[in-house]
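Lecture notes, part 5. Sequence design as translation. It can be helpful to think of inverse folding as translation between two languages: the language of shapes and the language of residues. The source text, in structure tokens, appears below.
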């Protein structure tokens, strides 16, 4: 997912000072693994159900930027053997952040319909959300098909320009349906860096690679420990009385 590469996506424009950020003019993007969940579920599946250790070399190569996430995921999933029922049993053990439901409700009260952007797989994410009573949220992610005990990935959001990501989140953020909106990005990992740099307001999980890379690049972000921090942030600045947000988002610059 080559976090340092730019794509053809246009950076979002900085709003004029008199146009204070209104939450209803924002699009909120959530990463899933280790953002909505407390750990990286896809990594957990790979570690739990791989029949060899090939996944480690793929992971290292991806972290060093030698391969993109698509090549990484294709390689890692080749070593997985798991029956559907065992996979489901595993997914049933995954809980989501206790504040996600009320954060979602707050955003929806202010006219925001958030989306999940993930380099994991829609079927896995939907299963976990359903099992935790969350419905109706749009998910942009890779897709998965099961054939006996194999997981076969496909990448409908690979991105025309990028060519490296499984799901090119940066290209998803640049889609026409999100045009004209201020982007708020919530994430933790390397695959979040590129889209975060094109967002107006970024929440980065404290101590994780997204926060580290943004700090190194001298880019502002709000660290969070769990989603209750973000819930309280929005609750404070919206005060639940109106949808005028009395703060200016961090200006987005071309990367
Ligand atoms: Mg993540
Ligand atoms: Zn990409």
């Amino acid at each position: 997912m080559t976090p340092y590469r730019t794509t053809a996506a246009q950076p979002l424009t900085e709003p004029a000072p008199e146009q204070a950020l209104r939450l209803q003019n924002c699009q909120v993007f959530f990463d899933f693994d280790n953002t909505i969940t407390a750990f990286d579920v896809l990594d957990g599946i790979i570690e739990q159900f791989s029949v060899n250790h090939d996944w480690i070399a793929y992971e290292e190569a991806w972290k060093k930027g030698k391969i993109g996430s698509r090549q990484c995921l294709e390689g890692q999933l080749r070593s997985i053997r798991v029956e559907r029922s065992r996979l489901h049993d595993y997914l049933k053990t995954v809980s989501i952040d206790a504040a996600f439901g009320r954060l979602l409700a707050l955003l929806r009260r202010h006219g925001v319909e958030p989306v999940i952007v993930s380099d994991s797989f829609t079927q896995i994410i939907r299963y976990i959300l359903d099992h935790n009573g969350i419905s109706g949220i749009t998910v942009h992610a890779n897709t998965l098909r099961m054939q006996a005990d194999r997981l076969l990935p496909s990448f409908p959001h690979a991105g025309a320009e990028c060519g490296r990501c499984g799901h090119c989140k940066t290209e998803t953020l640049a889609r026409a349906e999100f045009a004209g909106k201020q982007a708020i990005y919530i994430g933790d990992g390397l695959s979040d860096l590129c889209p975060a740099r094109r967002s107006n307001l970024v929440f980065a999980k404290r101590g994780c690679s997204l926060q580290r890379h943004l700090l190194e690049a001298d880019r502002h972000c709000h660290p969070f420990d769990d989603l209750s921090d973000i819930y309280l942030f929005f609750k404070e600045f919206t005060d639940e009385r109106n949808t005028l947000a009395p703060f200016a988002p961090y200006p987005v610059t071309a990367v």
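The translated text above is only one of many valid answers, since several sequences can fold into similar shapes. Residues 8 and 161 are 7 Å apart (CA to CA).
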